[in-house]
Specification:
This protein is of the alpha/beta class. The chain folds into 2 domains: about 150 residues, VC0802-like, CATH 3.30.2130.30; about 190 residues, 3-Layer(aba) Sandwich (Rossmann fold), CATH 3.40.50. Strands 2-3-1-4-7-6-5 form a 7-stranded mixed beta sheet, with helices on one face. Helix 10 links the parallel strand 11 and strand 12. It is elongated. It starts with 5 loop residues before the first strand and ends in a 7-residue tail after the last strand. It binds S-adenosylmethionine.
Length: about 375
Amino acid sequence: MEDNVRQYVAKTLYGFEHLLGKEITQMGAKQIEERNRAVNFKADWKTLVDIHATSRLAIRVIQPFHKFQARHERDFYNQARVYPWENHFSVDQTFKIDARVFSDTFTHSKYISLKLKDAICDRFRDLTGDRPNINVQDPDIVFSLDIRDQQVQLALDATGESLHRRGFRDDSHVAPMNEILAAGILAKTEWKPDLPFIDGMTGSGTMLIEALYRATKQHASWSRKRFPFMQWPDYPKGLWESQRDYYKEQVHNHYPEILGVEIDRETYRSAYDNLVRAGLSPFHYLKQDDFFSYKPKQKAGIVFLNPPYDKRLSLEDVQEFYGNIGDHLKQHFTGWDAWILVGNPVAAKSIGLRSTKRLKLFNGSIESRLMHFPLYEGSKK
Ligand SMILES: C[S@@+](CC[C@H](N)C(=O)[O-])C[C@H]1O[C@@H](n2cnc3c(N)ncnc32)[C@H](O)[C@@H]1O
């Protein structure tokens, strides 16, 4: 095996593990193993950098480097203190620890990360007489600490700030969907940019921007200047810039047939601003309108809906609204494929069309179904 090939874990959302495995395989990742909301893989530097430059489904990548069993806090500290941290960074670099703890023995993630920080600093002090500083805002190195029961896993976080933060969104008007959820749904629909795509209830425009970025081969991560992996001792300097520039050259500007429809004036304004911040033209892609009066000109395409699900809506309102969605699709979208993300079983039933797929996903903490309704002649209920 080449020297610079390492074992990594890429994290994603529930339901997208297989898609992420396929995506990073195309970038050169090897020995893919799908896990719950994660994919284990091996990769060299170029593949790691490409994942950061072009993955639409990865939230972050970590590189596990040490595992041990800890019976109690003292044991944890002692074992962490003898680990050779100086192999990962130097005393003049800053660091941060992200901890996740699922354990009866270790109950407070903040407290246990303080213990780890002490162990690291004490190790450096013993060796050099000096200690590295913590920087929570913009650290050089990010360590990921994961404790399940008494099993401790330490990893280097390659990514730092999550890749789902695409950086152009003002969230003040609606509860927007996570960008990775939008990217994963888009992949599940198997939409190709030569086919029309409509997000009929576009809210802040998350799906719309994702579709436009995909069609034009753009990636939001390109605006980032720093990733923690750049501080790792053997990072080939300049690799991020050269790979990013290579992918930038492949961006094309032909206007795909993509449209977001939003009824609410304020929400439309915020989607408009988000598109502008994302470098996209709202005039081409956004319309303030009622989806129920929108009739497509094209004979086929993908129509996606993430309709409102407000717990305050009465049962009758939910049934009527989702029933209207079914009726409108039936009457005006013959030949299209409809995909609807629904977080409410009553709403799902009220659509009144026959679904051929119901994929379980999580919209934030809400267990939802992504339902596929092919609207071809003869496919209606
Ligand atoms: C759950 S939100 C969509 C959130 C969106 N996926 C995002 O990431 O921001 C539902 C949106 O549907 C819009 N909406 C409700 N009824 C509509 C209609 N008849 N036509 C168009 N949009 C509608 C609401 O104003 C709201 O912004």
